[in-house]
């Protein structure tokens, strides 16, 4: 038999343990509210980061995941862009790839290939015409060099050689930009966005400035918070600048977390005349993009 005093000690001890766990960031809500009352289940995403590849999609997703009302799918799902594979499995397959969420939380996934794949806007629209979309963009010239840096790193990791940036991006005889080369046309943001606007209204699509997310993540995240009608829960101290990485990382009560080493690679040197040619190539598309979005960026 427990004495009265032992019971009091046990009770106080349990409260102390719970408080310590909460201080260390553990979610103990499930201990006092049953899963069924808060409807804990897998849901289709109410918000998708659709692109653009190499513009900061992973940083955006993980930073948004810091918000208590956002739950993110860790992997890129590629459901809507993989015709013969995943899309054929049906929407239930997709739902099962999503994290569990409570009522009122936003489920989010990111697959950058959605932005440039022709069939995807219609497919996402048929899943949910009211879905919110996030598009993060960056200077298309740096985006292209970043894409090349990734190809180069992957080849080197497999002990393979990689053609030069110049030979991949420019035609050998004429020196013209290979506009038909996927890494090049990915940066023609206005063309892709037009296809999305055939299915979604402009106010369903929020554009995130990639360079700004690098410089000051908090400010860009607050804009997304507003776009998604989330309660304001971001604070500046959730993000800290890591000098070694040269990027902002996330902080919780116990530790910090930076993105993996494949994010923020050193870019290979590209000759200035090639960069100038690429700037000329992208300029009309950039301007069309600024017109459609009603936004301007410091790349032109
Ligand atoms: N906080 C933080 N940490 C690290 N990296 C950051 C961060 N914020 C933005 N970025 C930029 O993200 C670029 C990679 O973009 P993505 O995540 O969209 O790449 S991918 O398409 O998923 O492969 C990556 O591009 P590169 O610098 O060219 O590697 C980064 O510039």
Molecular structure report:
- This protein is α/β, with parallel strands linked by helices.
- Helix content is 41%, strand content 13%.
- The protein contains 13 helices and ten strands.
- The chain has helices at 4-23, 29-32, 57-64, 91-95, 113-116, 120-127, 140-157, 165-169, 182-185, 189-197, 210-215, 217-227, 272-293; strands spanning 41-42, 47-51, 70-72, 100-101, 106-110, 132-137, 205-209, 239-242, 247-251, 256-257.
- A five-stranded parallel sheet has the order 3-5-2-6-7.
- Helix 10 (189-197) packs parallel to helix 13 (272-293).
- The N and C termini lie far apart (78 Å).
- It comes from Ridgeia piscesae.
- GO terms for molecular function: [heparan sulfate]-glucosamine 3-sulfotransferase activity.
- Keywords: Disulfide bond, Glycoprotein, Membrane, Transferase, Transmembrane, Transmembrane helix.
Distance between the termini: 78 Å
What is the count of helical runs? 13
Q: Briefly note the structural class of the backbone.
A: alpha/beta
Report strand %.
5-15%
Which ligands occur here?
Answer: 3'-phosphate-adenosine-5'-phosphate sulfate
**What's the alpha carbon Rg, rounded to whole Å?**
23 Å
**How would a textbook summarize the main sheet?**
5 strands, parallel
Number of strands: 10
Which range best describes the helical content: under 10%, 10-25%, 25-40%, 40-55%, 55-70% or over 70%?
A: 40-55%
Nearest-integer average pLDDT: 91
Largest sheet, order of strands side by side? 3-5-2-6-7
- The arrangement of helices and strands along the chain is HHEEHEHEEHHEHHHHEHHEEEH
Specify the overall morphology: globular
Low-confidence sequence ranges = 29-35
């Amino acid at each position: 038999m427990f004495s009265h005093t032992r019971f009091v000690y046990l009770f106080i001890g349990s409260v102390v343990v719970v408080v310590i766990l909460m201080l260390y960031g553990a979610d103990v809500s499930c201990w006092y509210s049953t899963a069924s009352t808060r409807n804990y289940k897998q849901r289709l995403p109410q918000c998708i980061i659709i692109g653009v590849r190499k513009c900061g999609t992973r940083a955006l997703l993980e930073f948004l995941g810091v918000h208590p009302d956002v739950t993110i799918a860790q992997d890129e799902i590629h459901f809507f862009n993989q015709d013969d594979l995943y899309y054929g499995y049906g929407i239930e397959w997709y739902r099962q790839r999503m994290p569990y969420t409570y009522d009122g939380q936003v489920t989010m996934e990111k697959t950058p290939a959605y932005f440039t794949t022709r069939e995807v806007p219609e497919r996402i629209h048929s899943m949910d015409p009211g879905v919110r979309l996030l598009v993060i963009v960056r200077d298309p010239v740096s985006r292209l060099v970043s894409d090349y840096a990734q190809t180069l790193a992957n080849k080197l990791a497999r002990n393979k050689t990689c053609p030069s940036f110049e030979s991949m991006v420019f035609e050998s005889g004429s020196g013209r930009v290979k506009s038909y080369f996927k890494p090049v046309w990915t940066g023609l943001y206005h063309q892709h966005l037009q296809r999305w606007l055939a299915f979604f209204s402009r106010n369903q699509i929020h554009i995130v400035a990639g360079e700004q997310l690098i410089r000051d993540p908090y400010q860009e995240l607050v804009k997304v918070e507003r776009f998604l009608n989330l309660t304001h829960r971001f604070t500046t101290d959730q993000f800290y600048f890591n000098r070694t990485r040269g990027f902002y990382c996330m902080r919780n009560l116990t530790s910090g977390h930076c993105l993996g080493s494949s994010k923020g690679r050193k870019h290979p040197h590209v000759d200035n005349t090639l960069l100038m040619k690429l700037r000329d190539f992208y300029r009309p598309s950039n301007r069309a993009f600024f017109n459609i979005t009603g936004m301007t960026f410091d790349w032109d």
